[in-house]
Amino acid sequence: MNSVQLNSCEFISHLQTDLFIKMQFMLLFSRQGKLRLQKWYVPLSDKEKKKITRELVQTVLARKPKMCSFLEWRDLKIVYKRYASLYFCCAIEDQDNELITLEIIHRYVELLDKYFGSVCELDIIFNFEKAYFILDEFLLGGEAQETSKKNVLKAIEQADLLQEDAKEAETPRSVLEEIGLT
């Protein structure tokens, strides 16, 4: 009986360590190869980031749609998924779980959809600050910090309210408005 419990505990322990993905970076780019968003969780020079981005965009875009969404690249695994005209591409360590990474990508897309209401490439282009903010609320240092969509969206909503309050405080008012005559 103890050996069965021990094996169950070992399994759960192993499962828990598999659930923590240490992402190296995330790239969002269009079918035309235009970079729309990039988040790096490892320190690299700008030159190296550009080289990696160029190489991965070319590699992913050259792959056929029916091909596997995982590929080995250097000493990392690349996990990518296409949603409409955007590719979401993540680099994870060799021992990390690709399927969990796909779920992380999907959760980020769900968060973007909820916030923007059916997100499209233009939403990312014109509201890139919000796209980064949503990503930062969801991932911290390349690891999922909050898996609840509701909690992430609540934090974003609160930040939006703070931003609106700050804008209202900055808006100059006329003397007549201040004394209540308008």
From TrEMBL:
It comes from Onychostoma macrolepis. Keywords: Coated pit, Cytoplasmic vesicle, Golgi apparatus, Membrane, Protein transport, Transport. One of its GO terms (cellular component) is clathrin-coated pit. The keyword Cell cycle does not apply. PANTHER family: ADAPTOR COMPLEXES SMALL SUBUNIT FAMILY. Adaptor protein complex 1 (AP-1) is a heterotetramer composed of two large adaptins (gamma-type subunit AP1G1 and beta-type subunit AP1B1), a medium adaptin (mu-type subunit AP1M1 or AP1M2) and a small adaptin (sigma-type subunit AP1S1 or AP1S2 or AP1S3). Binds to MUC1. InterPro entries: AP1_sigma (IPR044733), AP_complex_ssu (IPR016635), AP_mu_sigma_su (IPR022775), Clathrin_sm-chain_CS (IPR000804), Longin-like_dom_sf (IPR011012). GO terms for molecular function: clathrin adaptor activity. It holds the Pfam family Clat_adaptor_s. Belongs to the adaptor complexes small subunit family. Gene3D superfamilies: 3.30.450.60. GO terms for biological process: intracellular protein transport. Subunit of clathrin-associated adaptor protein complex 1 that plays a role in protein sorting in the late-Golgi/trans-Golgi network (TGN) and/or endosomes. The AP complexes mediate both the recruitment of clathrin to membranes and the recognition of sorting signals within the cytosolic tails of transmembrane cargo molecules. It is found in: Cytoplasmic vesicle membrane; Golgi apparatus; Membrane, Clathrin-coated pit. PROSITE patterns: CLAT_ADAPTOR_S. This is AP complex subunit sigma. Its main location: membrane. It is a peripheral membrane protein. Residues 23-162 form the AP complex mu/sigma subunit domain.
